Amino acid sequence: MATFKIKAPKPPKPPKPPDRLQNLQTVRPLGKTKWVKAHWRWNYGTHQWEWVLGHWSK
User: Fold this and answer.
1) What do you get for the CA distance between the two ends of the chain, in Å?
2) What is the DSSP letter of 42?
3) How far apart are CA 35 and CA 37, in angstroms?
4) DSSP alpha helices (H): ranges in the chain?
5) Which of 1, 3, 16, 26 keeps 20 to 30 A from 56, CA to CA?
6) What is the rounded CA–CA span in Å between residue 58 and residue 29?
C-alpha cells in the first residue's frame, strides 16, 4: 500500500508592487534572441518581490 505525504500549503504572496521604469534595450549578445522586459520576480528565499532588469534570453 502506498503512503502519500500531505504538503503544507504555502503562505499567500503579497500583491506585486507597481512597476518601475524599464531599462533601455542593450546590444544583443551572441546566441541570445529574445529581449525580456523588466519585471517583478518572487524570491522564495526571502519571501519578497524583487525587481529584475530587462535582459536577453535564448
Assistant:
1) 45
2) E
3) 6
4) none
5) 16
6) 10
User: Which residues have CB under 8 Å from 46's CB, separation 6+?
Assistant: none
Residue 42 and residue 11 in contact, taking contact as beta carbons nearer than 8 Å: no
What three-state secondary structure class fits 34? strand
Contact assessment for residue 40 and residue 49, using Cβ atoms and an 8 Å cutoff: yes
Its pTM stands at 0.71
C-alpha torsion sign, points 29, 34, 40, 43: negative
Full pLDDT tens readout for the chain, 58 residues:
678 888 888 888 999 999 999 999 989 999 999 999 999 999 999 999 999 999 999 9
Length of the chain in terms of residues written: 58
